[in-house]
Amino acid sequence: MVDRHGAIGVFDSGVGGLTVVRQIEARLPTESIIYLGDTARVPYGTKSPETVVRYAKACAQLLLERDIKMLVVACNTASAFALDALRDDLDIPVLGVIEPGAQAAVRATRTGRVGVIGTAGTIRSERYREALQCQDPSITVFSQACPLFVPLTEEGWTTGDVPKTVAEAYLAPLLENNIDTLVLGCTHYPLLKEVIAQAVGEAVTLVDSADETALVVQESLEALKLCCETPLLPQFRFLVSDAPSDFEQVGQRFLGHVMQEAEWVNL
Amino acid sequence: MVDRHGAIGVFDSGVGGLTVVRQIEARLPTESIIYLGDTARVPYGTKSPETVVRYAKACAQLLLERDIKMLVVACNTASAFALDALRDDLDIPVLGVIEPGAQAAVRATRTGRVGVIGTAGTIRSERYREALQCQDPSITVFSQACPLFVPLTEEGWTTGDVPKTVAEAYLAPLLENNIDTLVLGCTHYPLLKEVIAQAVGEAVTLVDSADETALVVQESLEALKLCCETPLLPQFRFLVSDAPSDFEQVGQRFLGHVMQEAEWVNL
Q: Among A140, A265, B39, B156, which residue's Cβ finds the most Cβ atoms within 10 Å?
């Protein structure tokens, strides 16, 4: 029996998933959240499916031990490779970020020409293509892996010549294909939104799955009658597998406000 | 009692340490080598000292179980943070890459103005500064962390505008300080040697610790009477914690020749 007063568990390979936490906080201010950033093993996006599944299961297990009522996989690479395995293993609802992002893109596109950027793993998995074309088979999908975007955001190098040159190199092939919508298929990428927007121009709509994922979290909690009813003070906890101090410093940029002290966990 | 017919154990966070293996092979063609690349948890250079020590100890333990006669820490970040801990724990000789690199730089410099580039962890540790000034207190050291260089080399993005822009951004402050020697303080960086050489110009000598480390390995084996005497066919084994196929593909660029099949290990 799942306890509706339990927290929502959210994990990502690093800090990127905090962009999803930020949107869940905004939509569901009475819900408690436990966030796990696997910062010792970040990034996931360059690793093989087997390794990502192994690490995602370890993250889920650690959060389950804290009695979460729902698991949000706030990492596109882990959603691409591990969502099915986690749903098979777990008795609580498990949500990813790819289907919500695809839904938002289908709503946004006018021409049906949709670009998707993500980690090498996410793009290779073809999960965005499947999710987009499952919702609208007439959509044409153009994909591009952008492996340097995660290290750029983790470094905080989000303005200036370097991110501009990197973004232009990655995005040129998508622009040649006349996309009108671009899915930011990695929870790190919203921090590069300005650079990406400049590179693609005003005619291309950027879709960020964080807000759409928070909406799906809300709808699922309501449908499953798992919303926290009594207006208790919500609890926020942040767990990390590398040094907490680095995470707190970088994490505030992603979360948009000062963060509670993070706790180290052994992963 | 250490067996002189045992292999030399070498580990790195990923493929970079293969540049050291390449030089050991060239100097010591009768020696067997077991290489471990912790590719599931790469990079180490952005992680905290505590995490790097924990991971380095796990790598060393795994190689010890294969009866190595010497351990080479072919990763600057692990050498910076974990060498002392590994020497305390292990009964076999343990060599790092920082002291050999510093020795080569001291020999190379004419003006005593030495630049060092490395991961965030290596630079923060100040170990190169200590090693350089321990050998020659008159040397002035200028350091620069280059966190994007590892993802660039792991991606194979070693030519063109992007690595050029990144290298120029990182190296400009060092050039302003009129260095005449630059230590490539990360085993990944030799793959960016051309881009780095262009950015710093002909007047700056690049020092790569791989060859110097291989020389120290040779001298240490001789001094300790641990050289393999009988000219048996040397054995080469490659162990990795992420998918072997990706490692083999990228690894050949670092090793300089076709590589034996790699074996997956659980880390």
A: B39
